[in-house]
Prior knowledge:
With 455 residues, the protein is an alpha+beta fold. It has 15 helices and 13 strands. The strands form four sheets. Strands 1-2-3-9-6-4 form a six-stranded mixed sheet. A three-stranded antiparallel sheet has the order 5-13-10. Strands 7-8 form a two-stranded antiparallel ribbon. β2 and β3 (59-64) form a beta hairpin. It is globular and about 60 Å long. The relative contact order is 0.17.
Amino acid sequence: MSTQTGPALDTPSRGHAFVAGPKGLPLLGNLPQFGKNPLAFFELLRGRGDMVRWRFGRNRCVFISDPDCIGELLTETERTFDQPALGVAFRAVLGNGLIVARGRDWRRKRSLVQPSVRPKQVKSYAATMASSAVELADAWSDGQRVDIKREMAALTQKIAVRTIFGVDTPADSEAMGRAMDVAQLEIGKEFAGIGALLPDWVPTPGRARIKKAAAVIDSEVGRVVARHRDGETERPDLLSRLLTAVDESGERLSDEEIRDETVTLYIGGHETTSSTLVWAWYLLSRNPRVRAALTEELDRVLGDREPGFEDYAQLTYAQAVVKETLRLYPTIWLITGVAKEGARLGGQPIEEGTRVWSSQWSTHRDARWFPEPEEFRPERWDPEDGDEIHEYAWFPFGGGPRVCLGTRFAMVESVLILAVLARRFELDVEPGVIEPVPSLTLQPDRDVLATVRAR
Length: 455
């Protein structure tokens, strides 16, 4: 499914040379076209060439599609490219967490957060991931009609609450979930609309809604943090590890920093995985051959038992299904950086202050890197007979020094949930095309209704 709506040039400029993008409007630049449909706009720019100039309001921008340049942008972040200033909505939710922080502050926080999501720790969370999925599977019945978007959100919320907070109180996940739903919507609206150009001090209804949602998030996280600080026994959850982590000078994260990193981990462990699973079920329902290949692997590897962490490495086709889902519907659909003095891409100098954009959505659907890019074909990722994937042609978790720390967590969680549920059931999604909506993550444009079929 392609969202491209504008014509590409007959002879797009490929390689490391700048070309002009669509003509914009005074003051607004290309913002109206971008805001109407960011995904289609990025595909339009990709059709123009590999390094395309455009304007976001008055801001000078370059959109890059060549994987070599994308790799340079990702690996040079923190040296010759900086994190951009993000909008009011984004900052209200994520504060100055690891995704937002820069320079020395970013390096310090990364060193404190990273031990909590190392492979050894992810292994310890796998049992919670699988058991939570089993609880959902036990609640489903043959012929039941479900909203997959709601079911996957509830499941990944439960896993996030259990692994991050170490609690299992419904109020925790429900309140956080409602607030995060508002945050998703408002971040998307601000980012693609006129709010992206308004000064921080300008009040808008959307900013009022995001502040209210952020207050709920602050309250819920603060309550759980206080409960952990008052506890006398050591807990194995992520929050407890953050509370006890110390930097090189022996300092711990402040309460505000704990809040910011907890929310960052929550989004990474819940929002992104939930969205990935929804798109996976949608694609599996539309591709019976792939669904049959997946169930064959699950029957062969697991038989009549539930999966555990030790099975992850053997579930290579399930991993490929997740990777191919992330290719077609990358939950993180945009990466940007701001050029510092001396920045270069593809050998070309980038003027200081220029904002450089790249899009997983656009690059992942480029036929140069993925033959038949619109097809859902997990066999691309076969470790022996798959396609040769160009480095940085697939980057759903970013890359370079700021690669997502939760990559392993997200992959293991997605594969184990898929394995638990697909071993017992097939989900027949109702007919009709579901379009992606770019907000904080790439979300379906409507409820995803399906009928549960027992295998």
